[in-house]
């Protein structure tokens, strides 16, 4: 029926706007047109309204076609850019085969060929940021044009660390600050004085300059108020089993010195022997590493030989060797003994210049860098050498240690012995003084923490009110017995005054540590020193005593 065909054409034109030419042909076909219907219940759409709707559909179809063409054009441009990048990349590979003055090694060429291809779907920069590729030892890395260098990434954990996206370059910043409150008993002492002290304020800058090369530069302000270099070294980590370190760093002698740093002490300070005869930090060169899946740690090297302190004030030289063996580290049969440590260390040196200052006084509670009034005020002196005494000649010392960590326990012990040569100015005699010492230390966490060594403690329930955490932190109780004994030669050759000082001390520490969180730690220590003979504890009135007590609180920030 004509009337039905006309309505069908209109309906198809509305639904199939993309087939507009067909709709027009349908509407224009020959044949009689339907007469108007007199029935007022049916009202047909005016012809003008239909034409407008068709025109709008045609315009929409045109816009969709333009957008589709634009997408095709952008894809063609992206393909062209990808082909250009591929061509330049292939050109760089071809340059490896060209003869040059400095030939590229096969290993370096292999690294370059294995470089990751550029992402073809990444948005290209206005100018290609890749300027050239430099092949370094064992690695190829890009040099970026000015203004297009990759941004630094950062993280917070053991301090603050900045590093490049490929983690080849990094800079870590750490801070150690210790504040002591010391109360001596009896209180009428001189020069030792009760009060507040700043034993260590340190700033550590460390990281790596490409993955195999590590570095550290750190500074310390000690009791004397002097800011000076603490460590400054470069370490080549060729492999965990073989590394080379040169510069100023910890000397690998004595487990008490070398195994863990000052922030991780059980007691506020080291035991008597390493506190007074430890090799501390020196400039030198050493090879070290971990063998047999980490069970054996070794270190051997040569050092400048300064006994204590930051400055090397003499021309001594030192040869040092260190071994630490954890025989059950990978054992499945004895899991409780995995963190048992056994080992020893030796050191030998020679003082070749005798115009240095006299030896440091022997003390109970600080490791000083100078024989200053500030250092003497913070600790009991139990032996002070005469003004005309110098360290001169040979010295040799050795140590054996055993340590265990597990189930919340920390147990450390070490026996040390040495022989030290001295000289009195104006005398041809060079007496040798034997020295022996030991310490036994035990500690136990009461709050469930189970460290496998002396390292950062993260409390299971930290105390951090700013984050709504009101846990007890980590609580560790400890006890230590430490002894030091010098040979009678120290008095027989008038190296020190027998009427004022002692050559034997037994020291006991009892207390606890509270770790509020991983960054904040408090030490609470009662230290009693028992002397083999009366010691001058008050220089003003000449008071001598056979013992002294120290009540010691230390607040430490380490992040």
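^ Assign residues to that structure.
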């Amino acid at each position: 029926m004509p009337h039905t065909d006309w309505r069908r054409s209109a309906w198809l034109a509305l639904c199939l706007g993309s087939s507009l030419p067909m709709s027009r042909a349908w509407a224009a076909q020959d044949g009689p047109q339907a007469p108007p219907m007199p029935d007022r219940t049916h009202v047909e759409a005016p012809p003008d309204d239909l034409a407008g709707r068709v025109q709008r559909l045609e315009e929409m179809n045109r816009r969709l076609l333009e957008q589709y063409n634009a997408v095709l054009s952008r894809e063609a441009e992206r393909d062209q850019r990808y082909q250009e990048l591929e061509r330049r990349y292939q050109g760089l590979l071809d340059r490896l085969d060209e003869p040059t003055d400095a030939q590229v090694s096969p290993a370096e060429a292999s690294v370059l060929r294995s470089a990751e291809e550029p992402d073809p779907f990444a948005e290209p920069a206005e100018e290609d940021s890749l300027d050239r590729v430099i092949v370094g030892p064992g690695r190829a890395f890009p040099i970026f044009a000015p203004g297009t260098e990759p941004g630094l990434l950062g993280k917070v954990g053991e301090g603050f660390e900045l590093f490049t996206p490929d983690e080849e370059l990094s800079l870590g910043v750490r801070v150690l600050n210790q504040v002591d409150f010391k109360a001596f008993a009896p209180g009428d002492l001189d020069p030792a004085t009760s009060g507040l002290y700043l034993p260590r304020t340190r700033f550590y800058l460390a990281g790596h300059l490409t993955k195999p090369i590590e570095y550290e530069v750190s500074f310390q302000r000690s009791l004397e108020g002097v800011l000076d270099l603490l460590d400054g070294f470069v370490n080549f980590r060729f492999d965990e089993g073989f590394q080379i370190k040169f510069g100023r760093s910890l000397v690998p002698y004595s487990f008490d010195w070398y195994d863990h740093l000052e922030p991780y002490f059980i007691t506020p300070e080291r035991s008597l022997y390493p506190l007074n005869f430890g090799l501390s930090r020196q400039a030198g060169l050493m090879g070290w590493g971990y063998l047999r899946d980490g069970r054996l740690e070794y270190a051997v090297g040569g050092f400048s030989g300064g006994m204590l302190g930051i400055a090397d004030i003499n021309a001594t030289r030192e040869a040092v060797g260190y071994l630490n063996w954890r025989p059950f580290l990978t054992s499945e049969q004895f899991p409780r003994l995995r963190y048992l440590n056994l080992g020893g260390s030796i050191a030998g040196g020679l003082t070749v210049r005798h115009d240095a200052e006299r030896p440091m006084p022997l003390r109970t509670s600080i490791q000083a860098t100078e024989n200053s009034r500030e250092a003497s005020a913070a600790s009991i002196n139990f032996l002070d050498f005469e003004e005309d005494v110098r360290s001169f000649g040979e010295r040799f010392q050795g140590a054996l240690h055993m340590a265990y960590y597990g189930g919340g326990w920390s147990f450390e012990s070490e026996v040390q012995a040495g022989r030290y040569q001295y000289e009195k100015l104006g005398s041809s005699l060079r007496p040798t003084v034997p020295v022996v010492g030991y310490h036994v230390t035990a500690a136990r966490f009461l709050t469930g923490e189970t460290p496998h060594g002396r390292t950062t403690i993260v409390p299971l329930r930290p105390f951090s009110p700013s984050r709504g955490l009101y846990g007890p932190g980590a609580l560790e109780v400890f006890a230590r017995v430490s002894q030091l004994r010098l040979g009678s030669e120290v008095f027989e050759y008038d190296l020190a005054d027998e009427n004022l000082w002692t050559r034997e001390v037994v020291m006991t520490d009892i207390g606890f540590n509270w770790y509020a969180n991983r960054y904040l730690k408090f030490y609470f220590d009662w230290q009693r020193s028992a002397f083999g003979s009366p010691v001058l504890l008050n220089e003003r009135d000449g008071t001598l005593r056979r013992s002294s007590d120290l009540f010691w609180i230390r607040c430490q920030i380490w992040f």
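DSSP finds eight helices and 24 strands in the chain.
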